[in-house]
Specification:
By secondary structure, the chain is of the alpha/beta class. It has 13 helices and 13 strands. 38% of the residues lie in helices and 13% in strands.
Length: 426
């Protein structure tokens, strides 16, 4: 006999802890201790030894000629736009379904974010929506390689080349991913990466910009290093720069994290294959389409679409499904990202950001449906375990599908009471 759903008082499918993140070991300890003992901890003079060594290796890993380490992934977007020559007041097209920092960085650069809806198959920016959003003020496109996928860089490059627009790839989810065999961050004019705690490579915080254009690298250095020129450049500073430097302690960790990346990709891919097969057996759960041109997939989070009308006979909403799956011991999220036109985190003061006039909250229906009705996100550390761990995720999902009638029959009050009781026990 099937156990009652954990959300309603039953026994969870999973009670053991999941793999810890970030993964670390004696290699990171040795690297940090070496940097600590040397006493040269900061990012000045820029680039410092470890930051330069890591940036070069990271750029090569992604088929870019140059790399520069910076303080975090938001400022990497901001200064990359400025280094690409995007002018204050210009419009920059960004996807409507991504983290708010993608659009906030556009504002920080003095520009206006313009939202394009996402492709319902891949959840990445829709090239048709990009073309529809272009105006005479448009100067750049920021495709985000989201969760498990890469934006259609063939179409985006064609649009940008035809209209003379800059392309800045937001690769915060995509360390090590490849499109047609080429690394992300080398497919546009520049690429932006994040090393924040949850990312596929982490130093707690940190970011990087990749580019194959030497003049862009020159401007990046000045913007990140208080206006100073990079070594070997005699020209006077032409910008008022920030202090966006990365520390040597972070760079020491990242050198080791880069060495871990390929093996972690392999583990995530094995677990994702188990989930792909398991979800295919459940009506109402739809896997994200994987483009054949995506030759190496980086899985920042495992995502899938919940279809209320088809799951478990219909009638459940996404948020109840997420609560039920979490109660079964599988951490997950529904509103991992908002639709940016509707996001409460993106309501800037018009006096400080006069270039942006705001956006219609319902202007991007695919993003809106994903954010508030359909998307389910599983944290990527869950995929670093064994095949048996991945099978437990599938078992939990099957259990909820089989017990959907219990949830439909329970009142909101009963579900909330069960949640509270469970939290008190744990």
């Amino acid at each position: 006999m099937r156990s009652p759903l954990a959300l309603l008082g039953g026994t969870p499918v999973r009670t053991a802890p999941w793999p810890a993140w970030p993964e670390r070991g004696p290699e990171e300890e040795r690297a940090v201790l070496a940097a600590l003992r040397e006493g040269d901890w900061g990012g000045f003079p820029m680039p410092n030894t470890r930051a330069e060594r890591f940036a070069d290796a990271f750029a090569r890993r992604h088929d870019a000629a140059h790399g520069l380490c910076v303080a975090n992934g938001t400022v990497s977007l901001e200064i990359a736009l400025q280094a690409l020559g995007v002018e204050p007041g210009a419009e920059v097209i960004v996807p409507a379904y991504t983290f708010e920092a993608t659009a906030a960085a556009v504002l920080f650069a003095g520009c206006a974010p313009v939202f394009a809806d996402v492709d319902p198959r891949t959840w990445c920016i829709d090239p048709d929506a990009v073309e529809a959003a272009i105006t005479p003020r448009t100067q750049a496109i920021v495709p985000v390689h989201l969760a498990m996928q890469i934006a259609d860089m063939d179409r985006i490059a064609e649009i940008a080349d035809r209209l003379g627009l800059a392309v800045l790839e937001d690769c915060a989810h995509a360390h090590g991913a490849r499109w047609r065999g080429r690394g992300v961050g080398s497919l546009g004019d520049a690429g932006s990466f994040s090393f924040q705690t949850t990312k596929l490579m982490s130093a707690g915080e940190g970011g990087a910009v990749t580019t194959s254009r030497g003049e862009v690298l020159d401007r990046l250095h000045a913007l990140a290093n208080c206006g100073r020129q990079r070594p070997g450049r005699a020209a006077e500073a032409t910008v008022v720069g920030h202090n966006y430097r990365m520390t040597e302690l972070q760079a020491a960790i990242l050198e080791v994290q880069l060495a871990r990346l390929d093996e972690q990709h392999e583990r995530r891919a094995r677990s994702a294959a188990v989930l792909d097969r398991g979800l295919a057996e459940v009506p109402g759960l739809e896997r994200v389409h994987s483009d054949a041109r995506l030759t190496t997939r980086a899985i920042y989070q495992y995502v899938f679409r919940f279809q209320s009308e088809a799951f478990g006979g219909g009638g459940l909403d996404r948020d109840t499904f997420v609560a039920a799956l979490s109660a079964e011991g599988v951490p997950c999220d529904g509103r991992f990202y908002e639709s940016l036109p509707a996001s409460p985190l993106l309501r800037p003061d018009s006096r400080r950001y006069p270039a942006w006039g705001g956006a219609d909250p319902l202007s991007c229906p695919v993003a809106h449906a994903l954010a508030y009705q359909q998307a389910v996100w599983l944290p990527h550390p869950l995929l670093l375990g064994t095949t048996a761990d991945a099978e437990q995720i599938v078992a939990a999902i099957h259990k909820i599908a089989a017990g959907a009638a219990e949830l439909r029959g329970a009142t909101d009050t009963a579900i909330e009471h069960a949640r509270r009781a469970r939290s008190q026990r744990t």
